[in-house]
Design a protein that fits this description.
Structural class: alpha/beta
Distance between the termini: 20 Å
Number of domains: 1
Shape: globular
Radius of gyration: 13 Å
CATH architecture: 3-Layer(aba) Sandwich
Order of helices and strands: HEHEHHEH
CATH topology: Rossmann fold
Helix content: 40-55%
Length: 102
C-alpha cells in the first residue's frame, strides 16, 4: 500500500466511523506496505490499534518489522473473529454497527 492509498483509506474511514478506531487488515492477497504508511499510522491519533488476519507466516514477519515504527498495539491471528474480539477489547466497540463496510 502506498502512502497516497493509505490517506484515501483513512479519509474514507473517518467519514463513516467515529474516532478513535482500530484498523483490521485482512490479508487476502500478498502486497507490500510503504514504510511511510507505518509512520502515518503512528502519527494518526484516531487509530488506536491494528488487528491483522494473516494466513502466511511471511505476512506476519513482514508486518512485524513495522511494529517498532507504529508503536501501537498489534494483534495477529488467522481468524477474523479472533481479531474482531481483540479489537473490541482494545477500542470498547461492539463491532455490531450497521455499517455497510464492516
Amino acid at each position: 500500500m502506498s502512502i497516497d492509498n493509505h490517506r484515501k483509506v483513512t479519509e474514507t474511514i473517518s467519514q463513516h466511523l467515529e474516532e478513535p478506531y482500530g484498523l483490521i487488515i485482512d490479508e487476502v492477497n500478498k502486497y507490500s506496505i510503504d514504510l511511510q504508511v507505518f509512520h502515518s499510522i503512528r502519527d494518526d491519533p484516531a487509530i488506536l490499534c491494528i488487528g491483522v488476519v494473516c494466513y502466511r507466516k511471511s505476512t506476519k514477519i513482514a508486518l512485524s518489522l513495522g511494529e517498532s515504527l507504529i508503536k501501537k498495539p498489534i494483534f495477529y491471528s488467522d481468524s477474523l473473529q479472533e481479531v474482531k474480539q481483540w479489537m473490541k477489547m482494545q477500542t470498547g466497540s461492539s463491532l455490531n454497527s450497521p455499517n455497510k463496510y464492516e
